[in-house]
Amino acid sequence: MSVNHGANLYDLSSKYGFSKDEFMDFSSNINPFGTSNKAKEYIINNINMVSMYPDPEYVNLKKSISTYCGCLSKNIVLGSGATELISSFIKTINPKKALLLSPAYSEYENELNKINCEIVKYFSKEENNFIIDTKELVSAINSGNYGLSIICNPNNPTGFAFSRDEIEYILKNTNCYIMIDETYIEFTDTAMYSCTSLVDKYNKLFVIRGTSKFFSTPGIRLGYGLIGDKKVKNEISKNLDLWNINIIAASMGEIMFLDDNFISTTIDTMLRERNYLTNSLNTIDDLTVYPSQGNFILCKIASKKFSAKELREKLLPKKIIIRDCNSFDGLSEYYFRVCILKPEENKTLIKNLKSIFK
């Protein structure tokens, strides 16, 4: 991956003489426990399906997503990863001016720049623990004549999340398109925070999700968008390739979205480990730790003993990789992000951080 999207394990392996598998990659916000065993076993036992074309309508896949998200199948559009759908949606509605909640994932800005859209950044503030006031945001949206507002929920890298009720308040009180990226929503309480069911009610809402992070399947490139605006959905679909989801991805999706045991076990484990990491990081006096609803935690080296880049360099010989957040707009060189890994790896991170700051 590039410097803006995580560590390049190939380069680091060559530089430090470790195999890629030896690194504890706290910069990668992918579920460390792997994907659904049910889905994997199905693929292994039905590998001859690779000689078949997928269903061009993806009826069963959309049915699984519909059940999983609590929305109508007709409001689902499929993509080869979430990034393809972000790009397709932005090109389709072609906003002249967009409000981008920041700091944020760089791909939103990249796609807006491709269509020469005027970008206004709405920064969450450190002094407010990066929490955004909903009414203030609505006021900003309405005062700017925007065609689109983009919200990552929970936000990467700050971890802040609007509740479902807050998102509905935004939808009720604004007129522009609202794109919600729910890439990390499944690592938290979806009943409280996810707004997937709102797409059946609000035509200006577009919800993006992928399977790379929570379902730990970046290799199959499966993403989906939810939108009630039939015209926009049809336009997006028209510009996507026929059979844009391969049969392996489609078959895995049909199963893993309904694998309740995998889903509940992952959520329970990740929440427990997030609490452990948050509490443990808070015991290090040099750090300011920000509350997170994602599978990652934003920290600041408040003592300014060294920069996040220097901290990263100190951890690499220990086979530990953290994310230096200096590439995110609005964050200084003292910010870093750690993702939740397996219990022993999380303990190893805390042990080494305590040692370095001691």
From TrEMBL:
Every Aminotransferase class I/classII large domain range: 22-352
InterPro entries: Aminotransferase_I/II_large, PyrdxlP-dep_Trfase, PyrdxlP-dep_Trfase_major, PyrdxlP-dep_Trfase_small
Pfam families referenced in this protein's UniProt entry, alphabetically: Aminotran_1_2 (PF00155)
Any GO MF annotation of the entry: transaminase activity
Gene3D superfamilies cross-referenced by the UniProt entry: Aspartate Aminotransferase, domain 1 (3.90.1150.10), Type I PLP-dependent aspartate aminotransferase-like (Major domain) (3.40.640.10)
Cofactors demanded by this protein: pyridoxal 5'-phosphate
Superkingdom of this protein's organism: Bacteria
Key words of the record: Aminotransferase, Pyridoxal phosphate, Transferase
Identification of the protein by name: Aminotransferase class I/II-fold pyridoxal phosphate-dependent enzyme
Organism: Intestinibacter bartlettii
